[in-house]
Amino acid sequence: MRSMLFVPGDRPERFPKAIASGADALILDLEDAVAPERREYARGCIREFLVATERRAPCWVRVNPVDSGNALADLAAVMPGRPAGIVLPKTRSVLDLQRADHWLEACEAVNGIEAGATALMPLVTETAASVLRMAEYLSLPARVSALTWGAEDLAADLGALGNRNADGDFESPYVLARTLCLYAAAGAGVMPIDTVDTEIRDTAAVGRRARESRRQGFVGKLAIHPAQIAAIHEAFTPSSEETAWAERVLAAFAAQPGVGVLSLDGRMLDRPHLRQAERVLAARRAAGV
To answer: What is d(CA 11, CA 156) in angstroms, rounded to the nearest whole number?
Structure first.
């Protein structure tokens, strides 16, 4: 999932355009993008879309927070459509994930869905308390396939006036939250997905930040507009030069089985370089290149 594109759940006329964007996955939103008085309408739109549409990309649903009083009703409404996964916002601790896991297990049973088939991706940095509990996320329910983070709600929780500097880059409290999300995902063995960029016209800035994300270890990025998808995909798809180097690294280790360290083009390589090369080739295959 190089890209996951948010779409407001109460705007069904945007669903076809979102599919046509080429995003690797869609996130049909029932939370921040939908006013409370339109939530029931949005649930119906999403359920109808999931049931009736032949999917060209996995469709996820962002429900409301566990403690909101709306999350269980959201799940009951959309699970008949068999979404690929659920995005859980404002998680306070791993206890929220365990609760959502139990609800999903019940919804799967009611709708004849294989237990555990619905993936779960929490937003783990939207409260200060959750950031301070990040080590808890090393032990996750099996259905959790990715961790992602957000800065807007965290800024509100901190009482901040903003979260980006004059250049549009995140300030230090949010760099910390992002870094902890990356560490937690790596430690738990799930995918780290970077947060959204607000620029929808400056695709060069989106691409620059996506390249930084990939270099640091993220495998994909959330998006809020179809115009961002091409830049994100380009950033998260290994280039032909990277691929050629990775293939040479694998070939060098294959030619010397049992060797822990070797030399290639004047560089000393060891097992971490082999793992990196394997990941480059896996990312290339996953991108369909």
So the answer is: 26
Q: How far is CA 178 from CA 125, 162, 175, 264, in A?
A: 8, 16, 5, 34
In 128-257, where do the E strands start and end? 146-148, 191-194, 220-223
pLDDT more than 90, % of the chain = 75
Q: Where are the domains of the chain?
A: 3-236, 240-286
**Using one digit for the tens of pLDDT, what is the confidence trace for 83-109?**
999 999 999 999 999 999 999 999 999
Beta-carbon contacts of 281 under 8 Å, excluding residues fewer than 6 positions away, are 238, 243, 246, 247, 250
Using DSSP, state whether 264 is helix, strand or coil.
Answer: strand
**CA 44 to chain CA centroid, nearest Å:** 24
- CATH no. for 3-236: 3.20.20.60
Compute the average pLDDT of residues 247-262. Answer: 85
Q: pTM higher than 0.85, yes or no?
A: yes
